[in-house]
Amino acid sequence: MRNRLKLLRVERGWTQEQLGQALGVSRQAVNALETEKHDPSLDLAYRIAVLFARPVEDIFENPHA
Amino acid sequence: MLAVGKNGTAAGKRYVIRTMGFMSGYVAINVLAIFGAFDDIGSPVAAWGLALAVSAPVVGQIWATLSFMNESDEFVRALIAKQFIIASGLAMAIASVWGFGESYAAAPHIPAWLIYPLFWACFGAVAPFIRTSR
């Protein structure tokens, strides 16, 4: 799923490891999200949205829109 | 087998420790068997006890793998589950072909416990090609 996760993470100066710790997932999971190798669950997508204080659709492109 | 858990997470470290523990037991029992420690076993009950003792670490290692999936985040869980399912299917397919080869084509007999190392060989073969959770 196309997303702006890497851009948002780099804007804050975070590493994948740091973002993973903030979200409670592994660095591999963050990398998989950024490289579109994993579509997040609704729960994880909302956790990411809360962390960056943005609506989910600002971060993840709706593939059905 | 150990490479599965080497992702730097707490769940991965637990998996490596559990797997090394179970495999140490497996190797120890088999080394004792190779050197004849169980050659004098006569009763069927004791023989089955030995079979269960050798199998127990394998069951434990399967538990360690499933626990690793349970304790990991959603991406690692999905990825390992996908690799596990495809490796299981491949191992069952190979075992079935060989089994019918024994039944109908006089293929040499292979012990059924080899399905477990076969599964991990299949896992190692397919894992590099399965890198997404989709």
Automatic annotation (TrEMBL), chain A:
Key word 4Fe-4S present: no
Chain segments annotated as transmembrane: none
PROSITE patterns linked to this entry: HTH_CROC1
Database matches in Pfam families: HTH_3
GO molecular function: DNA binding
Keyword annotations of the record: DNA-binding
CDD domains: HTH_XRE
Cross-referenced SMART domains: HTH_XRE
Domain HTH cro/C1-type, residue spans: 5-59
Gene3D superfamilies in the record: lambda repressor-like DNA-binding domains
Protein name per the record: Putative transcriptional regulator
Organism: Brevundimonas lenta
Automatic annotation (TrEMBL), chain B:
Transmembrane annotation, as ranges: 20-39, 45-66, 78-98, 110-130
Keywords: Membrane, Transmembrane, Transmembrane helix
Protein name from the UniProt record: Uncharacterized protein
Organism (species): Brevundimonas lenta
